[in-house]
Amino acid sequence: MLTHFHRIGIVGKFGDPVIAPTLTELYRFLLQRGHEIWLDSQSADFLDTPSINGLHIDRLAEHCDLIIAMGGDGTFLAAARAAADHEIPLVGVNLGRLGFLVDISPEQLTNRLEQILEGHYKTESRCMLHASIFRDNVEIHRQTAVNEVVVHRWVTPSMIEIVTSINGVYLNSQRSDGLIVATPTGSTAYSLSAGGPILHPGLSALVLVPLNPHTLSNRPLVIDDNVEISIGFGQTRQINALVTCDHLEIPDVLIGDKIVIKKADKMIKILHPEDHDYFHILRSKLNWSVG
Amino acid sequence: MLTHFHRIGIVGKFGDPVIAPTLTELYRFLLQRGHEIWLDSQSADFLDTPSINGLHIDRLAEHCDLIIAMGGDGTFLAAARAAADHEIPLVGVNLGRLGFLVDISPEQLTNRLEQILEGHYKTESRCMLHASIFRDNVEIHRQTAVNEVVVHRWVTPSMIEIVTSINGVYLNSQRSDGLIVATPTGSTAYSLSAGGPILHPGLSALVLVPLNPHTLSNRPLVIDDNVEISIGFGQTRQINALVTCDHLEIPDVLIGDKIVIKKADKMIKILHPEDHDYFHILRSKLNWSVG
Amino acid sequence: MLTHFHRIGIVGKFGDPVIAPTLTELYRFLLQRGHEIWLDSQSADFLDTPSINGLHIDRLAEHCDLIIAMGGDGTFLAAARAAADHEIPLVGVNLGRLGFLVDISPEQLTNRLEQILEGHYKTESRCMLHASIFRDNVEIHRQTAVNEVVVHRWVTPSMIEIVTSINGVYLNSQRSDGLIVATPTGSTAYSLSAGGPILHPGLSALVLVPLNPHTLSNRPLVIDDNVEISIGFGQTRQINALVTCDHLEIPDVLIGDKIVIKKADKMIKILHPEDHDYFHILRSKLNWSVG
Amino acid sequence: MLTHFHRIGIVGKFGDPVIAPTLTELYRFLLQRGHEIWLDSQSADFLDTPSINGLHIDRLAEHCDLIIAMGGDGTFLAAARAAADHEIPLVGVNLGRLGFLVDISPEQLTNRLEQILEGHYKTESRCMLHASIFRDNVEIHRQTAVNEVVVHRWVTPSMIEIVTSINGVYLNSQRSDGLIVATPTGSTAYSLSAGGPILHPGLSALVLVPLNPHTLSNRPLVIDDNVEISIGFGQTRQINALVTCDHLEIPDVLIGDKIVIKKADKMIKILHPEDHDYFHILRSKLNWSVG
To answer: Which of B27, B128, C267, D32 is the most buried if burial means most Cβ atoms within 10 Å?
Structure first.
């Protein structure tokens, strides 16, 4: 066995028994090829192999050369965030429905993986965001996001006033339901529902998308990703806001807090089959037909 | 006189006598500083100085070290396109209403220009687009655009079917009223009316914005500007299309023609006062107030 | 035979041989039931029955109690406009792909039609628009529209300035690519691509939708359909505009012309199977799935 | 004194001393005309007249023939909701900034009011919504709204799945941040920020506007206001939702609850100066200028 991906981690869709058959097929395939295989604890339960030991998803990356995420884009995001510090490459396998990130279908599973494990693949790097919450100039929370960081109004139906600066230069104050800062990866997720554009994954850019802004000309803004975005609140009344990083919540953000968003130092490395075609996935996911 | 901008060209708002007082002030100011001054032929008529000789706007750049465009953003675009081949830097002066490109106001005219001519300025580079129309593999038209290249349906109220490839890879076929390819400079012009995002001018990106697409998920796509965009038509019925580069028209584009859009080799060089603030202009032009 | 729809007209998709099998089935079914059958001239050619005589679509309504439109929504529109003056009821048959107006599928053809011809149907009334072009206070064109009347910029890539009044009260002047005035029927057609809302067909309302307006707060306006909408132009430069009624063109509208749009006196009467469900068609046509 | 509006109630902007001068002017004007005057308790404090007795806003309508709301549209909404059961007519006075509902400016105050009190006015009726929350078929909350009823996701950043029926007929299931049901009055408020159309106040219609829906073709739907809208949730996971009626909150709505929205029996009666012009207000509030 000559592949440089000897030790392989598998992250399955969280707690969903539907992964069992494809997981079993994948396990046997890798076993046969002589790989050392690690599973996340949840997925280990779905494999009918009592001897296998599961590992917490956050510890997988320490033991592996490659991680295979099996499920939807959400599963891939969870695996990517867990592997982020180690910059381990990831491969995405879907369960029958193409995702933006999980581009290998079950029926092509062994065929496509074989090619990748033999070294025939395209590498793609995707940036992540790093959000910090500062209270009285002390960082009280930090979190990583692959798709987006969102500042939401919270426990109030009233719009909040969000004050944004970029690299220390005042951008604007907007009354809205919140503000999304999305990566190209996130541009086809929540940001798209909120009226944001699609950012090609090869672009070194971020998009700021206001959520239902009071001022109708307050439109999405695309900026270079090499910036520091600083977000505060303009209210004088006490409010609470919520910050989310993908689907992780940082609640109870206070009116005097400051949210600082930057590109993370580490990138996600995704391995794709050599014929990977982003535009094909776009057409498929967004139901673009000829007319 | 030590400035390296000795020979200065002036391009005024096309045929509009409203420029006369500010033009006269500018002319005297430059004369006093000992500059060699050239005017475009139209503007020369509005200057009460019989001795001055006008030059066709396309020839100004050959004789000048710096061009001052005076009017609205449209005047600046015309000057920029005319100066494009020579990469002469431009300065924009408005006539009382701030523009995205004409950021010096008449009341600050001499003060701001003095600073710039003394060497105190920020330089900004903006990309241009280059569009070619090919018929039977022969290039039959070529044109440069600062804001956008647009493919429109023409002499038909029916939607057209536009087939787009990027770097030779098929993107999509869309039925719509047309397709905008806009630079960051153009992102705050027609593209914004059609639902496109704002692209920060520092971003090396373009945006493709469909015009009233039949498929509602056909949303603006932001891509790196280092690409070749190829646009054809999917119709079988004979149609005519119109291609515009800013406001220059290339009519009678045929169904078998191919439109190829690339970033132009040359960049526009804009000189700004040192306290230039793009976000301030954005807030002002889009009427963003606190809420 | 007791049905009150004795004489039946058939309008097929214009010049498309794909209708032949379903048309033949329909013809035989109606013949067997003893109906008097008339076809539009185009469709008559696709029927392998030399004895049948085609009639121009505009004359069908004079001879029939009911018209069956077979094709897509476009075919239905053409039949409806042709039958408008006589208020003959219409039934829509699709060719395998559900339309908003053609809601009977080929596989249910005889079954559904039998029910309708036996008197088991729901009647729905849809309004039409009537557009008149006035030059020097003389009406020089008039046309009927089922979906929408559109005022477009024409032979110019520049936005036009459209001045609108409703019942003689000034609404606004907008710079844009044009203005759509759509019926509820038209609200799911071009108007939807331009950002308009869906109007339930039971609503006595029209929607005005600007096409890519320069002012971003210029949003769709829904008004009662019992109004007179008057549209003129604010330009001083000579321009040409185009007015379309559905897909019929009235070109060469001049800057001094006035376009007056009112609800037509006559309504379209559509017969639906008794289990007709507009929301089902909406979900199907707009690809609304659970998530 | 012959006017039929003898007893007049005044509702001022909640707790804002800025109303004092205009309030004093209004009070003196009405006193001079011999009216019986009642103030809401908050406003009474701002009037330098120790003898005046304030009344709780909810009880004002019982004692008055006319209510004058002074402040912004929010103040008018509060007064309208409080007066709803008694169908007392309302007049809106702004504090210097035109509102959709408060159309009399301070500088025209006595002049315009005199006309209205002398019987020279236009009456406009605006519908309200009535929302009920049902748990296990028992109505546990009910509330009235002038602008809109909104179902929001609550204490979760994940989209919720909202299942809507109209008059008992299933409309759709949508994953989104929530759903707005707005009156024509509310169509220029939150609904507009969320992408809804403007509904002319004379229209007997409501608009359903999804908040950032996952499915991009899930667009605003305008329906007759004589319907019963029933909203439930499609989730299987336990979620909490929030229902708001204008800015009044009904939190802790459960996944099994049903929200039923209908037009309220009572209408709001607004009295306007005879030259009242809705389109003028629209142009002013939405910053529609000529271009």
So the answer is: B128
